[in-house]
Amino acid sequence: MQQKNIFIRIDDRFIHGQVTAAWTKKVGATSIWVVNDKIAGNPALKQLQIMLAPPGVSVAVLKIEEAVEKIKNLKNNEKVLMLFENPVDVLAFLEKSGVKVDSVQLGQMGYRAGRVKIEKTFDIGPEDHKALLKLLDMGVKLYYQQLPDFPPKPVDMEQKIRSLRLG
Predict the structure, then answer these.
(1) Per the residue annotation, which of 9, 13, 14, 16 is the catalytic one?
(2) How far apart are CA 124 and CA 12, in angstroms?
(3) Average pLDDT score over residue span 18-34
(4) CB of 32 within 8 A of CB of 83?
(5) What is the mean pLDDT of the chain?
(6) 16 is annotated as an active-site residue
(7) Residue 82 has pLDDT above 90, yes or no
(8) Closest CA to 11 of 97, 102, 114, 89
(9) Which value, to the nearest 10 degrees, does the dihedral of the CA atoms of residues 49, 3, 18, 131 take?
(10) How open is the CA angle 162-35-22, to the nearest 5 degrees?
């Protein structure tokens, strides 16, 4: 099922300051879904995400399986900003839900051992790379954009990701 009323952003900071508020406004989101098994399973982290939400926007903190169920009941007049920690979780959500999207925005994934930088604020490891390749094979456009006030970086992300050689 093609889903036009969701906007998927990979940002390992999840709900945070002006960036989330700006993206919520830019995409006209009526709600934010933080989709992450670890945060959804930790009451303190879950509550923190809810407290950080911009005023007037509802927040759901969901495990991937819960998001798969919740998307089935999404109404046409709802618009959701979905925040994921990494492409592995995005791929799991899309495969399990059957939802099809045109694009996924790459926002922020910080450096960790074993990751390589593909953009200023976006580092990936081998599992992330495999997931991004699979998303590309599914016809999902990937683009890098930090802030809504600046256009997406004019980089052929598909070529860049396909040419990477990671473990």
Answers:
(1) 16
(2) 12
(3) 90
(4) yes
(5) 92
(6) yes
(7) yes
(8) 89
(9) 70
(10) 85
